[in-house]
Write a structure and sequence with these properties.
This protein has 112 residues and is of the alpha/beta class. The protein has a single domain, classed as STAS domain (Transcription Regulator spoIIAA, 2-Layer Sandwich), CATH 3.30.750.24. It is built from 4 helices and 5 strands. It has helices at 25-37, 55-70, 82-90, 103-111, and strands spanning 2-6, 12-20, 42-53, 74-78, 98-100. The chain has a 5-stranded mixed sheet with strand order 1-2-3-4-5, sandwiched between helices. The longest helix is centred in the middle third of the chain and has 16 residues, at 55-70. 33% of the residues are buried.
C-alpha cells in the first residue's frame, strides 16, 4: 500500500494505492491520525487505486472520520473503486461517510 498526502485549498487529498487489509490498515490509520493530530481536519481520500479493503481498512476509515469530526472536520471519500464501493455499501459505510464521484466534487463540498 502507498499513501501520498497532497495539501489543498480546502482539504488535503490522501491518495491511497494498493490493498488496505490487516497488514496495511495500521499504517494507514497511523498516517491519517498523525496528519489530523497536526491540525489537518479536512481530508479527502482518493480511493481510485485501492483494489481491496478488509474490515481492518474499514475500521481505519471509521476511526479517522470520528477523529476529524470531533475536531470540526471530516473525511470524505472520492473516486471509489467499484469493488471497494461494494464493500462500503454492504457494510453500511456509505451512510456514515460522504462519498463523491471524484476528488473535485469532494473538494468543492468543503468550499460550500
Amino acid at each position: 500500500m502507498e499513501i501520498e498526502i497532497q495539501p489543498g485549498e480546502y482539504a488535503a487529498v490522501v491518495v491511497i494505492a494498493g490493498s488496505v487489509d490487516g497488514l496495511t490498515a495500521e499504517t494507514l490509520l497511523t498516517t491519517l491520525q498523525g496528519y489530523v493530530d497536526a491540525g489537518h481536519t479536512r481530508l479527502v481520500a482518493d480511493l481510485e487505486r485501492v483494489d481491496y479493503t478488509s474490515s481492518a481498512g474499514l475500521r481505519a476509515l471509521l476511526a479517522t472520520v470520528k477523529q476529524t469530526r470531533q475536531r470540526g472536520g471530516d473525511l470524505r471519500l472520492a473516486n471509489i473503486n467499484p469493488q471497494v464501493l461494494k464493500v462500503l455499501e454492504l457494510s453500511g459505510f456509505t451512510t456514515i461517510l460522504k462519498c463523491y464521484d471524484d476528488v473535485a466534487g469532494a473538494m468543492d463540498s468543503y468550499a460550500a
